[in-house]
């Protein structure tokens, strides 16, 4: 008989919410959300990025990305630049304020990842990542 408590997607969703909420608490001191932090990470990593690419990397709808970008632009963290040859193509770059905030908050991702996994052996982490990758691949194929 099916039990929701044993359903992989239910367990993963609850785990993801827990982990995300913990990281959000850490980032609150910087006045940004985990989603904004992730956008700062990707845009800063590539220095300039197309809005659609950011949507794909973050696995969120383009309409959600647009709202995120609107907010971050209003807060002075990013700049948009429209492609003169293609109106739908929008490039994103970090402002000085965005680069500074990224640099200030960047280490928290590594610190949080270390903290939550410090009691997990390297072997168990490799197994976890392998199993998770397989399940994500299967979910994408479904």
TrEMBL record:
The keyword Transcription applies. Keywords: DNA-binding, Transcription, Transcription regulation. SMART domains: HTH_MARR. GO terms for molecular function: DNA binding; DNA-binding transcription factor activity. It comes from the Bacteria. It holds the Pfam family MarR. Gene3D superfamilies: Winged helix-like DNA-binding domain superfamily/Winged helix DNA-binding domain (1.10.10.10). Residues 5-137 form the HTH marR-type domain. This is DNA-binding transcriptional regulator, MarR family. The lineage of its organism: Bacteria, Bacillati, Bacillota, Clostridia, Eubacteriales.
